[in-house]
Design brief:
The structure holds two protein chains of two kinds. Helices cover 57% and strands 10% of the residues of chain A. By secondary structure, chain A is of the alpha/beta class. The radius of gyration of chain B is 21 Å and the shape is globular. The chains are: A alpha/beta, B alpha/beta.
């Protein structure tokens, strides 16, 4: 790759890290006009900027609003680059995210959702107090890779198990990786109900998603 | 004077906006307001003693709330108030409330920063999950027997007839919480304090309202709960609790968390949002006693340094500029589990900060990491909470800061990998209902350390 093209990709990466949606969109168009492979661009720019954004968040330099804005910039650039791809060749994993039935807590779920978006995942956030069947139906409809379930109450944790049990009952348990989290949730609970992953906090959760994505 | 029906009407007619846009409006408003003030987080003073900064945080929080208002998640609309309406509501808020009844009643008043009046303490294990009725009764009774706590938090029975799981949103939720509250009432009677105030709160409003029953459940003199949704949000389920509390003219307690790392944009911003959150609780939840504060999402402990600063400063701001009855409860969510030294010093740091900043402590003893482990706590943590909160009354902020810094130096590097702790049967002699020797010794030894640091214990 020429130095000029390398420079252009770095500028796009910087625009995303700096949460500049307009600049990221413009640079993504320039990337395509320059004839750089869009798959390579997506992997390099999205992958590398996601690592840096995550690091800044981890270090306390970035807060949630920065994740939102960086995520928006990343989505805008991705949309432009993906327009040059066949629709079936998207390299990103899809996550259906929800707080389980009867649980109104949204903060932890929102943070995980924003961090996943800023890490290049496509996130469909169904909100709070979502029925198990609704979560599964949505995951099927979107052909999702992940189902992510948040619970902040001891008495709503069983709904995380219910989703897994219903997936088994429908004979589609292997179609989705199920990741759970929430204040009272622990690794032992994840093991007990047969979840694929557990994150004790949002930062660890994203690492779990990335690890499971690479499997 | 606005009523709750005016608020609900505004929730139906206010500006329609996507929730994510409301979230970002908080960030932008805080960024704009912050520039006008000299509010600066200093890790060396988790309990700041700067009155001017506290007053600036109050002013900034009020400006923020007037700019962004509250968001109703049911209607997707913003509820806004004028400055006159907010000031009138603050003026009309009570400065004292009676909790409990008869000889066991206590008066909960507005506390000043560094006030010498003892704070009101609600002990018991909030969010506790009990294996069976017998164990539940023993733990509740043990908590109520300690005179250093004024009220007790309830919990939930883990299963019905040791067979059927209690599930939120299902009929078993109503039964599980109701049985717990009935047993709590029996336990405080057995402890000789039948009129002490109790509190319980279930995931749904219908189950919470179902707890109210003069003979076997909650009474109007008990603490009613209405929760604020982070950040500056409300839904109809919480408004159901508020309406129920107002019908009974009860002590309606609201709590709101500014997320540290969230849409406040900075630690300083979280203090500003915490003040705005308290105003939101007064205006929308109609709470007459409020807990401002925050929640760190990277650490499962509210006794982490930045949060102590946020909550302490927000309490001071509200204590100095209003006559609201404030709850601090900064020590109610430790990372460490019961029966460990880290649990004792982590919770103590938070309780001391609450007390000297003008707060009561109504959050009970509780743990972020309970999981599905039943009976995860003992009455000794309640005693600790009561003794520390009341023993810290009258300390100066500088003295409290010195103590808290010393405690933080010991525990803060262990917050990410805290000791898990032990269950009741691992810490107590179940038959004698007394702590095992090792735990009792840990308690007394740690208490002596705090005595030498300047806390004044009654015994």
């Amino acid at each position: 790759m020429s130095d000029q093209n390398e420079k252009l990709l770095n500028e796009l990466k910087e625009a995303i890290i700096n949460c500049d949606e307009a600049e990221a969109t413009e640079l993504a168009h320039k990337v395509l006009d320059s004839g750089i492979d869009p798959v390579y661009s997506l992997q390099k720019v999205i992958g590398e900027s996601a690592v840096i954004i995550g690091q800044k968040f981890d270090d306390g330099e970035y807060f949630l609003p920065h994740l939102v804005m960086a995520g928006d910039a990343m989505m805008a650039a991705s949309k432009v680059l993906e327009s040059a791809l066949d629709t079936d060749s998207s390299i990103k994993s899809t996550v259906v995210l929800a707080t389980v039935e009867a649980d109104m807590h949204s903060v932890g779920k929102n943070i995980v959702g924003m961090m996943l978006k800023a890490s290049g995942f496509v996130v469909h956030d169904l909100g709070v107090d979502v029925k198990s069947s609704e979560i599964i139906d949505k995951a099927i409809a979107l052909n999702a890779d992940f189902i992510a379930l948040s619970s902040l109450l001891t008495t709503t944790m069983p709904y995380q198990r219910e989703v897994i049990d219903e997936l088994k009952a429908r004979g589609i348990r292997d179609k989705f990786k199920v990741v759970i989290g929430g204040g009272p949730v622990r690794q032992e609970w994840a093991d007990k109900i047969g979840a694929d992953g557990y994150g004790k906090d949002a930062i660890e959760a994203v690492k779990v998603f990335k690890k499971l994505s690479s499997k | 004077m606005l009523t709750i029906w005016d608020v609900i009407e505004r929730a139906k007619t206010g500006e329609k906006i996507e929730e994510s846009k409301f979230d970002m409006s908080i960030f932008r408003a805080v960024q704009a307001i912050r520039k006008d003030y000299n509010i600066k987080y200093d890790p060396k003073t988790p309990i700041p003693a700067d009155d001017q900064m506290a007053d600036e945080v109050f002013e900034a929080g009020l400006r923020l709330y007037l700019m962004v208002g509250s968001y109703c998640t049911n209607t997707g609309r913003i509820i806004k108030f004028s400055e006159e309406e907010v000031k009138e509501a603050l003026e009309n808020a009570p400065a004292e409330l009676i909790l409990g009844e008869g000889e066991d009643a206590v008066k909960m008043i507005h506390r000043n920063v560094e006030g010498s009046e003892e704070p009101i303490v609600a002990g018991g294990i909030q969010t506790a999950f009990y294996s069976d009725k017998e164990m539940m009764f023993k733990i509740y009774k043990g908590c109520a027997e300690d005179r250093c706590v004024d009220g007790i938090w309830g919990g939930v029975l883990g299963s019905i007839d040791n067979k059927y799981e209690v599930l939120a949103g299902a009929p078993s939720e109503i039964y599980g919480y109701r049985v717990a509250t009935e047993i709590l009432r029996q336990a405080i009677k057995a402890a000789g304090r039948p009129g002490m105030f109790i509190v319980n709160n279930s995931p749904t409003s219908i189950a919470t309202i179902g707890l109210h029953d003069r003979e076997k459940g909650l009474r109007p003199c008990d603490l009613f709960e209405t929760t604020g949704i982070s950040e500056l949000k409300i839904n109809y389920d919480d408004l159901n609790r508020s309406v129920w509390g107002l019908i009974h003219n009860g002590a309606l307690h609201g709590a709101h968390n500014a997320v540290i790392g969230g849409f406040s944009g900075s630690i300083e911003g979280a203090a500003i949002v915490a003040v705005a959150g308290a105003l939101h609780l007064v205006m929308v939840n109609r709470a007459n006693n409020v807990r401002p504060g925050g929640i760190p999402f990277k650490t499962k402990s509210r006794a982490m340094r930045a949060h102590i600063w946020v909550a302490s400063l927000a309490l001071q701001a509200l204590s100095r500029n209003t006559h609201l009855i404030l709850d601090g409860s900064i020590g109610d969510h430790p990372a460490a589990g019961p029966g460990t030294r880290q649990y004792l010093i982590e919770t103590a740091a938070g309780h001391i900060a609450s007390t000297v900043s003008g707060g009561h402590s109504l959050g009970g003893t509780r743990k972020f990491v309970i999981g599905d482990t039943p009976n995860f706590g003992t009455p000794l943590e309640s005693r600790w909470m009561g003794e520390i909160c009341k023993g810290a009354a009258g300390l100066s902020r500088e003295h409290a800061n010195e103590i808290v810094c010393k405690l933080l130096a010991e525990y803060e590097e262990h917050l990410d990998n805290p000791p898990r702790g032990y269950t009741y049967d691992e810490l107590y002699d179940i038959e004698k209902e007394q702590p095992l020797r090792e735990y009792a010794e840990l308690y007394e030894k740690t208490k002596e350390e705090f005595r030498t640091m300047g806390l004044k214990f009654k015994n």
